[in-house]
Specification:
Blueprint (H helix, E strand, L loop, with lengths): L14 H10 L23 E3 L2 E3 L3 E3 L15 H12 L4 E2 L4 E3 L18 H19 L6 E7 L22 H6 L13 H21 L3 E4 L6 H5 L13 H4 L1 H13 L4 E7 L6 E3 L12 E3 L27 H14 L3 E5 L7 H4 L16 H18 L5 E3 L9 H10 L5 E4 L1 H5 L3 H8 L14 H7 L11 H4 L2 H21 L3
Parallel strand pairs: 3-4, 3-13, 4-6, 5-6, 6-7, 7-8, 8-11, 11-12, 12-13
Antiparallel strand pairs: 1-2, 9-10
Helix pairs in contact: 2-3, 5-8
Length: 506
């Protein structure tokens, strides 16, 4: 059977043809007939109260790792440039701006920004640059809500060598251990309760620093396979930090309680992978030439055990299907007991099932061809957020997976906000190629630089997967002119040659 072939979004030149394609896919998504400016009544221009702060509009920017800090965790010119672009984008909610490790050995890459007292001034400088850029561009920053994402990379720590994982895990996961070469009998990588308590202290210290600098909120990250996310599926961990939902949220509870005690001015957000799936890999029977095969799930039967698959937000007897009962319980806990001010809802992990949370036409170098039309993944995430909004009203929610809609993004986003499917429309990769898209929509009611629309080439992911700084190499001249661009081309060429051999059965 040949691999599936999907039409690119850029293939559709008008709204009726795109709407017809959505219908053919069985996707129920409302589309506005035109982009609305703020003066024209755009729902994306509405303010929203989050905790004690009024956020100026409904555009949000997701946190992204740039792989472009110094080895000791300080920002570089590339970091500053990205943050300034975020400030000038027109989005009024900056979710985390950057994934910021709470300790050096918790970094996902050797050049990730991280907490240490010596790095406070560097973080203050990029925060100031972003806020000043926003104020200069829009006249005020009084409605500009900026957070810092606090993270420990857990299973995906790569703190000192870009080619070497140094995992710290919450429990042994049969499928993920196998995929990422962790021996099931190696308990040296499993965090002890004392390790966890020291880590919690570092989250709190990093939050205190964020408050001193002027961030209005912090994100206690619980997504994408990193440490905070792994706790949510730690059914098989014994003791305080595993087992039932109370135990699996204890890590989050203790961090939030500590931040409230020591930095009471901070609002608290949580970016959470609200559902997960098993890892995927390219189907070896459908690769051809230098092309990866479409993704198929790893064999997870052996991971079921007697109590089911260890995944969050999926059925434990069949993790390819959703089960939102615990995610709803978690969100109610956040809202009613933990005082979480807002949540950002993502899914899965870019390390083992990237099509779930980051739908793309072109896969990253360590990925696979999409196993479904990427629009199906966008629709899935939007519908899940819609269900959660209905189940937990009053908790502000940021949605994910909008970038793949490309030129139709505003036409999808406007009715999503208007119809109360979501509160904020979050974008990530998009602002690397076209940072002022939100401003163009709200000020002019049009995409003024359509050639910069992200086409999901995935170079922003392929580059860091090969130890190269992240950015939009195809569309941003800043990155296209860097020597790293040649290194990226070489890495992609080497992959293509390798695939040719593998697909011939060599």
């Amino acid at each position: 059977m040949p691999p599936p072939v999907f039409k690119r979004v850029g293939h559709f030149k008008d709204i009726p043809s795109f709407a017809g394609h959505l219908k053919d896919l069985g996707l129920d998504l409302p589309l506005d007939p035109k982009i609305l400016s703020a003066s024209g009544g755009s729902p994306l221009a509405q303010t929203l109260r989050v905790g004690n702060f009024t956020v100026g509009n409904r555009w949000a920017i997701h946190p992204m790792e740039g792989w472009d800090g110094t080895a000791d965790g300080k920002p570089t010119e590339h970091t500053i440039r990205r943050w300034v672009n975020f400030g000038e984008s027109g989005a009024k909610l900056i979710w985390g701006a950057e994934a910021f490790a709470v300790q050096a050995d918790g970094k996902a890459n050797p050049n990730q920004l991280y907490y240490t007292p010596e790095n406070e001034e560097g973080m203050r400088s990029i925060h100031r640059a972003m806020v000043d850029a926003h104020k200069k561009r829009f006249g005020t920053a009084d409605d500009f809500f900026v957070g810092l994402q606090l993270t420990h990379s857990g299973r995906f720590c790569r703190p000192f060598d870009k080619k070497k994982l140094e995992p710290r895990i919450v429990y042994h996961h049969p499928t993920l251990d196998k995929k990422f070469n962790i021996r099931p009998d190696d308990d040296s990588v499993v965090l002890t309760d004392d390790d966890i308590k020291r880590m919690i202290d570092n989250y709190i210290k990093a939050a205190v620093m964020a408050a001193k600098i002027g961030f209005q909120f912090v994100d206690v990250k619980a997504c994408h396979g990193y440490l905070g996310h792994e706790f949510l599926s730690a059914y098989r961990r014994k003791g305080r930090y595993g087992g039932d939902l109370k135990g699996r949220t204890q890590f989050m509870r203790e961090i939030i309680a500590g931040i409230r005690a020591q930095a009471p001015s901070l609002a608290i957000g949580v970016r959470v992978s609200i559902f997960d799936r098993p890892p995927y890999h390219p189907d070896p029977t459908q690769g051809a030439g230098d092309k990866l095969g479409p993704g198929i799930p790893d064999d997870f039967a052996s991971a079921l055990g007697t109590d089911g698959y260890p995944g969050f937000g999926c059925k434990r007897d069949n993790p390819l299907e959703l089960d939102l009962a615990e995610p709803i319980e978690l969100l109610k806990l956040m809202k009613n007991d933990l005082g979480v001010a807002l949540v950002n809802l993502s899914a899965g992990s870019p390390y083992y099932n990237p099509h779930i949370q980051r739908p793309a036409f072109f896969p990253p170098s360590d990925g696979y061809q999409p196993p479904e039309d990427p629009l199906v993944g966008c629709h899935r995430q939007m519908q899940v957020v819609r269900q959660l909004k209905a189940a937990v009203p009053g908790l502000p929610m940021v949605g994910t997976a909008y970038t793949y809609f490309q030129e139709f993004l505003p036409l999808v986003a406007q009715p999503a906000v208007r119809n109360n499917w979501v509160d904020f429309v979050g974008v990530g990769r998009l602002v690397l190629s076209y940072p002022d898209l939100p401003a163009d929509c709200l000020e002019h009611g049009e995409l003024r630089r359509p050639k910069l629309i992200c086409r999901t080439f995935s170079d922003c992911t392929t580059a860091p997967r090969n130890g190269i700084i992240s950015g939009c190499y195809p569309l941003d001249d800043h990155y296209a002119k860097l020597p790293e661009h040649e290194a990226l081309k070489d890495a992609k060429k080497a992959l293509r040659e390798k695939l040719k051999v593998l697909n011939k059965g060599g």
